Structure formats: C-alpha cells, structure tokens
Amino acid sequence: MRKKAFTLIEVLIATVVIVISLLGSLSLFNQGTALVSNIKEDSVVTYALQEQMELIRRTSFDAIITNYPVATNFNTAGFAALISPVGIVTLDYPFANNQIVRVTLRLSWQSANNRTMTKSIATYVTKGGIGG
How far apart are CA 80 and CA 58, in angstroms? Predict the structure, then answer.
C-alpha cells in the first residue's frame, strides 16, 4: 500500500505562495500605518490653524492691521506634536477699498515620512464687522 504524501515541489510551491501573501499583507499594514500617521498630522495642523484663526477673529480690525503688517510668524500649543513647524500670517486687500482684509494662515512642517507639508486657511475681516 502506498502512502500519500506531499512531494518536495508541492511543499516549495505552497511555501512560496504563503510567503508572497504574507509580504503583501505586511505591505498593506505599512501603508495603512503611514496613512493613519498622515491623517493624525493633518488633524493636528487643522486644529492649530483654526485655533490661531479664532484668536485673530476675536481681534479688532485695526489691531489685526497693526499686529500683522507683513508676513508674521505665529506659534500655538498645537505645534508641539509636529516636526519643524513654521506658521505664517499674511494679510492682503483683495478689494479696492481698505475696509476688507483677507487673513491667510499657512503652516509648513516635516511629516513623519520626511516630506515637507503645507496647509493653509483664509478668512475675510471687515472694518465694520458683519453688519457694518
């Protein structure tokens, strides 16, 4: 009576298939981890920019013009989780009158995978307020 067993070639092919599938799974895991890290950084940056923008929105029009005459650096507590963050506030007057100013906040930082990232937000501030 013959015993049924696997041949050496069958075992090698099965081993190669298992190794390839494990390497594919590991690659997906690494990509997923990098994506989660990028999403976390983006959330931190968005929060830090919104926090700074709220501070500026609570400031009077004249104080904004005085405090941020040219591109001015800013820093918030939210930057502690980032690598080499640089925040810049810029003002410009997109309309003919000087009663409306556009405030732009831009933040640059080094991501965990060593890429330079940048995110910005902008808002308009009027001298007379919303109703004025």
Answer: 24
Split into its structural domains, the chain has a count of: 1
SS3 62: helix
Tokens of 60: 């009077």
Q: What is the mean pLDDT of residues 29-47?
A: 86
Rounded to two decimals, the pTM is: 0.73
CB 68 within 8 A of CB 91: yes
Cβ–Cβ < 8 Å for 83, 107: no
CA dihedral 57, 59, 62, 65 (to 10 degrees): -60
Q: Which of 72, 78, 87, 77 is nearest to 119 (CA)?
A: 87
Using DSSP bridges, classify how beta strands 72-74 and 83-92 pair: parallel, antiparallel or unpaired. antiparallel
User: Is residue 13 in a domain?
Assistant: yes
Residue 3 lies in a domain: no
Supply the pLDDT for residue 98: 84
- pLDDT score of 4: 75
Domain span at 45: 8-126
